[in-house]
Design brief:
Number of strands: 9
Largest sheet: 6 strands, mixed
CATH topology of the largest domain: Immunoglobulin-like
CATH architecture of the largest domain: Sandwich
Order of helices and strands: HEEEEEEEEE
InterPro entries: DUF4625
Number of domains: 2
Signal peptide: 1-19
Organism: Aureibacter tunicatorum
Oligomer: single chain
Distance between the termini: 88 Å
Protein name: DUF4625 domain-containing protein
Structural class: alpha+beta
Keywords: Signal
Radius of gyration: 23 Å
Number of helices: 1
Strand content: 35-45%
Helix content: 10-25%
Length: 152
């Protein structure tokens, strides 16, 4: 009887360990919401854009396993000497929630043209993309190194 009890307990323990490992492996393999192939450039493919010029922004958005894509947000901001967010000059800070071609998709290629104001500050601008899925999850390029430089 003791042998049967020990054998039963060993089987239960093994099953618990194996199912735990399987769920961790499944979680590790789960597809996550992501942004890739981000490019910000002028019409000649360089990163310098003149005042009054146009920035071309391209990126790929991929939905995760949890939900389809919903909308994206583009922000281009400079790096003020003060280091304060409230002192940043933003060329664009716009949410594209009305873009129905993006909502509900698993993958999307995005191409936007952003006009640089004649009054924009000269210098480097950080390009930030935020993608949000229908479950409210988000991913961004805040830590990325994509920049454009506004020149005269």
């Amino acid at each position: 009887m003791k042998k049967l009890f020990k054998l039963s307990m060993a089987l239960i323990f093994s099953a618990a360990v194996l199912s735990s490992c399987e769920s961790e492996e499944e979680e590790a393999l789960a597809k996550k919401l992501s942004i890739s192939n981000l490019v910000a450039e002028n019409h000649d493919g360089g990163n310098e854009v003149s005042l009054g010029g146009t920035i071309h922004i391209d990126f790929e958005a991929q939905a995760g396993d949890e939900a389809n894509l919903d909308y994206y947000h583009i922000e281009l901001h400079d790096h003020p000497e003060s280091g304060l967010i409230e002192d940043e000059y933003r060329i664009i800070d716009k949410t594209f929630m009305e873009k129905s071609t993006f909502k509900g998709l698993k993958n999307a290629s995005v191409h936007e043209h952003i006009k640089v104001a004649d009054t924009a500050n000269l210098g480097a601008y950080h390009v930030v993309i935020v993608v949000v899925d229908e479950a409210g999850n988000s991913v961004d390029t805040e830590d990325g190194d994509v920049e454009i430089v506004v020149v005269k």
